[in-house]
Design goal:
The chain is α/β, with parallel strands linked by helices. It is built from three helices and nine strands, in the order βαββαββββαββ. 28% of the residues are buried.
């Protein structure tokens, strides 16, 4: 992996951009307009996934990117803001994972639990787990709408895969017949930060 340019994104620029995040539905509401947004260091055990898989090639790419950027004085697991990186003529954003404070049903369906729910960046978090390192995330408290998927019980529910099989349900969605309504559009702020994955959800789920 050959990096030809690295351009910083300051902490203030990152926070200001994330604050403008819009939902795909609900009149494209600015879901973080009045939220508290901080850069916070977490042990990965204290972050809760919603996605039921990670792709092993993607985790390998994250680890390779980290090694390449360390040579430029940038650790993607400890960002104080972010960077734009140019690789093979393509400019891509590298920012911390985005995590929300979320109140979720308890695993035994008795009461509720507060979690730090991963919205974007599960492969970066998983890469940190493989290295046994903490990770800096964008932590959001006070979103106007809940995340579009429910929290898993923990990392034991995340399956490493080489590729997505057909019929694999990626998440447990809050609104199964319109699950993208609560989707956060981070790509509108940082094009390329959310990668389009293979469509694999069962047919009864409607985006």
């Amino acid at each position: 992996m050959e990096i030809s340019a690295v351009t910083p994104i300051t902490r203030d620029e990152l926070v200001a951009a994330v604050r403008r995040t819009r939902l795909q539905g609900f009149d494209q509401a600015e879901v973080y307009a009045d939220a508290d947004i901080t850069l916070t260091r977490f042990d990965t055990d204290d972050l809760t996934p919603a996605q039921r898989y990670v792709l092993e090639p993607n985790v390998a790419t994250v680890l390779e990117l980290r090694e390449a950027l360390l040579a430029h004085g940038v650790d993607i697991l400890a960002l104080d803001g972010g960077v734009w990186v140019e690789i093979d003529g393509e400019r891509i954003p590298v920012i911390p994972p985005i995590v929300e404070h979320s109140v979720e049903p308890a695993s035994n369906n008795q009461g509720s639990r507060a979690v730090a729910l991963i919205n974007d960046g599960i492969h970066r978090v998983y890469a940190a787990r493989t290295l046994g390192l903490p990770i800096t995330v964008v932590h959001v408290t006070g979103a106007t709408h809940p995340y579009y998927a429910l929290a898993l019980d923990g990392w034991a529910d995340v399956t490493p895969l080489s590729e997505l099989p057909d019929g694999f349900q990626k998440k447990a969605y809050r609104i199964p017949d319109n699950y993208k309504a609560l989707f956060r559009d981070f790509n509108a702020l940082f094009p390329g930060v959310q990668q389009q994955r293979k469509r694999s959800n069962p047919d009864h789920l409607k985006a």
